# Entry
Amino acid sequence: MILSLGIDIGTSGVKTATLNSEGDVISNSSIKHELQNLDNVNPSVWWKTVKKAIKLNLIDLYSKGINSSKIKKIAVDGTSGTVLLANENLQPVTRALMYNATGFVKEAKIIEKYSPENHITKGQNSTLARALRLIKEDKNRNAKYLMHQADFIVANLLKKGGLSDENNTLKLGYDLKKNGWPEWIYRTGFKKYLLPKVYPIGAHLGKLNEVIANELGLNKKTNIYAGTTDGNAGFLASSKFKIGSAVTSLGSTLTVKVLSEIQIEDSNIGLYSHKLGKYWLVGGASNTGGNVLEKYFSKNQIINLSKEINPNNSSEMEYYPLANIGERFPENNPKRKPELIPRPKDQTLFLHGLLEGIAKIEKKSYEAIHQRGGSYPDHIITVGGGAKNFVWEKIRIRIIKTKISSGKNTEAAVGAAKIPFLFNN
# Structure
């Protein structure tokens, strides 16, 4: 029996999952991150937490009578766009800037000057903008590697830096068509030596470092494979991985993803594609979602008021629910204003209208992908907190007109563990 260990570094903590080749979850673990100042995140804390999570997983594995030597494969996913700079000894020389850090106006202007029109790296909250800020902060120029969150963990497992994957590097500016870094990126002030060598998802990166293997209690012959982002790992965990597979994440925001045979991109509406083996994962993220609901209702109110909604009837409200001004997908419009008028006194009716409004944005998102050559889903798997609201599910079925169900395996760690089995690069 060969087992694969998936490691997911999420926003709130680290989760791991061990799978067999049939995709069965054999053991897992979950541990919260140590509390940190989000404006001054120390990446070394992540590595400590990952090691604790792996050890907890092995305890679970041993409790089932299985030896850790059966784990022969490891892949890692991390939050997309979280970056740091490290020296040749893999020690951070700057803070980490998290995926949701924003406000890098000067850097955005530089990127705007040199990047192609409507490029994915544009904007004051882009990964490239964060990276340029960190380069400024490395005043002594001690950095040798620019790393994403997943890259940092992989580097510590291998004791080797300078490696990344096609999914994490997409929003940093990696050119998938040319399989290389574009020349314009160096004109922004980015140092060429900082950029990692980029591998396809599932590519073999090397063997687990022997010292680390002994410290963690893992087989020193364990192979490390190129991983992905947390969003992609969540898709792999919950989908059947066939053309047309669709996953909607109903978390604080709304994210849709569809597996396609062709690359589909349209920066005008915030649509982009990740490379997954011989396929493409097409998707986008709207600013609508649970953050809008929680702006007006407590979690208990949402649960209780949902019970009073008849999902087969229309609220007759035409809302475009946003918590703040600005939309990313299915329209890329930073000036897009929320549409929440009229606001009825009946709280149940107001929630009904919001749930329908989010469902209509979801439908529009899938239609946008379909109009550009992707499949319109005949079945949508739902993950995230919103997947638990079955009244909302019935509303979405009525509006989107397709089969919808909740995902069984929704943990990104499960998706990461699937990578070495799914992709044979």
User: Anything to note?
Assistant: The longest strand covers residues 25-32. Residues 241-408 form a domain with the Nucleotidyltransferase; domain 5 fold (CATH 3.30.420.40). Residues 141 and 389 are 50 Å apart (CA to CA).
